[in-house]
TrEMBL record, chains A, B:
InterPro entries documented for this protein: DNA-bd_dom_put_sf, MerR-type_HTH_dom, MerR_fam
Name of this chain's protein: DNA-binding transcriptional MerR regulator
SUPFAM superfamilies: Putative DNA-binding domain
Record-linked PROSITE patterns: HTH_MERR_2 (PS50937)
Gene Ontology molecular function, alphabetical: DNA binding
């Protein structure tokens, strides 16, 4: 198929497809004539995946490239795939404004109290600590029960992530879900949390809207 | 204090502070001379908050403006504040590539099954459905137990969010936490989930690193 058809099939604007191409996020098509390139189903799936990582997952172009590179390396050890997945988190690599020491210590303290087996160079520490710093700017010093509830939520999701991995057949299928599931689990949770908040605050802060689901 | 001091106090690069100012995200300082403007503690806190929303929360400039506007409106009803908080989700307003109908129906189905009281125009539906679409591009059709685990996690966090709101004194303090807590709960969860994943996959996919916390 031509590039215009590729865009239509992937339900993605043509300008976006050309942009992905220019940024090296798509495999080359097949040259069928000097001015003509043919694309196939693999390209359609790749365009959809790139869009999901960039738009829904909120990854940068650079991180998306790393993610695709490790997926395209057929024999990358799963431990390495896992590490790339762990680092594919929106702000983990912008060193200009690191989290405060106090926030980092607080996260480490709760992780140790929960008995989790994790290393302090896990990028999640930095991301979670920055969120605490952000909450502190409005004078909210997250109490233990708040943090522990978020940790319980995180553990529930992580167990579901691992169970999902174990349901996949073959190394490639596992590697794909390891990376994409890690990235897209964030917006999945974010969306469901908005819905759960509406349920939890139903009586406290009612929002006048149409189209109730229940 | 001068703008350079403001930047230092807020631990934010001066270029970033000037950028926030140009984008109208900071209140004006006090003109103390034709070429001199003075800033105070309020500006320091605002710079930190803006940085948290943009960098940690991943919000766009436009959404950050909306969030700050509703916080700066002293008499905005809490239901309105809540609605702005709900919409302050990274991709909820980019209409070019909406979620598939199938994914939207799937989320609605599980929300109804869980008996949650929520409306379908809640932006969380779109975000969660897009995540499902992204997972489908690698052939992972999220099974019920996976989705339900994420819903349980979301409900756990939402209950903690509401409890935290109830611990705040006064309308302004509640409104602030409603918005900032909604935005920063996402990266808090994302960070903790990375740590929980390392714990959950400890034996399955060990990552060779230093600095164990436990």
């Amino acid at each position: 198929m031509r590039i215009s058809e590729l865009a239509r099939e992937a339900a993605t604007p043509l300008t976006a497809v050309k942009y992905y191409q220019r940024e090296g996020l798509l495999p080359a098509g097949e040259k069928t004539a000097p001015n003509q390139t043919a694309y196939d189903r693999r390209h359609v799936e790749r365009v959809r995946l790139v869009r999901a990582l960039l738009e829904t997952g909120g990854l940068s172009i650079a991180v998306t490239k790393q993610v695709l590179a490790v997926l395209d390396t057929d024999d990358a050890p799963l431990a390495e795939v896992f590490e790339v997945a762990q680092y594919a988190i929106t702000d983990s690599r912008s060193p200009e404004t690191p989290a405060s020491r106090a926030a980092r210590a607080r996260i480490e303290d709760r992780v140790t109290a929960a008995g989790w087996c994790a290393t302090t160079d896990n990028p999640g520490h930095e991301t979670a600590a920055r969120a605490l710093d952000g909450l502190a700017t409005i004078g909210f010093d997250a109490p233990d029960d708040y943090l522990d509830a978020y940790m319980t939520a995180a553990a529930t999701a992580a167990r579901a992530d691992v169970a999902a991995l174990q349901s996949r057949d073959g190394r490639d299928a596992i590697a794909e879900l390891m990376v994409i599931g890690t990235v897209l689990g964030d917006p999945l949770f974010a969306g469901l949390r908005r819905i759960a908040q509406q349920d939890a605050t139903h009586d406290v802060f009612p929002v006048a809207t149409d189209g109730a689901t229940s």
